[in-house]
Hints:
7 helices; 252 residues
Amino acid sequence: MAAAALPDFLxxxxxxxxxxxxxxxKKAPDYSATNSTFESTKTTNWAPDSIEFLLQNLVKxxxxxxxxxxxxxxxxxxxxxxxxxxxxxxxxxxxDDMLKLGTYNALIGEHGVxxxxxxxxxDFSKSHKLFKGAMKVxxxxxLEVLGGPPRVSIKWRHWGAMTGNYRAKLSSGRTVTAKxxxxxxxxxxxxxxxxxxxxxxxxxxxxxxxxxxxxxxxSEGIETIDDxxxxxxxxxxxxxxxxxxxxxxxxx
Length: 252
């Protein structure tokens, strides 16, 4: 199909950042570090007219909208009539559900990872600060595509260096910490996607094991501390400054 007939979010992985929209932090996030690291550490090099390249761009733009556009009606990458997201065979989530949960929580699941991460103790802002603090950049690439529109299966890779400490508060009041390993955190999964006749996402279901990411994040060992051990006035969720370009684990 001629490029002129395709929507811009298939051709440019960053095009939605140019939109006039209600952005979470008042302006579009800065993905320059992510884009630079992606080019130097990716394992694939898809042709611009390949289905892999086009779907990679679609998912990257979807991630930016889901993470940073606070009004789902402004998400150009989804079908406004029928959109749903599933994790590992679980129940459907709407765009509104994802905004309430946060993209990390939606992709980790309601049960979290025992002893390391509790979804119920993390809202959107806290979860993004936590992962942004541990990994400044967390890239995503398409490895393989099976099928063709409107329904495809995408095998993907998600990776980034753990340059900061991991620190998560649990509902018990205790805080789990793990020192930065400096190692590359690398996870793999499969996403099933269905698009409408305008290549907007109607259905996404991601299959992956969140445990594989957390095992790597705490590979240097974990420590737990009580709230009273924090410095006066210090809050766990405020230890990492907000910075544009936070990443979510699936598809971006």
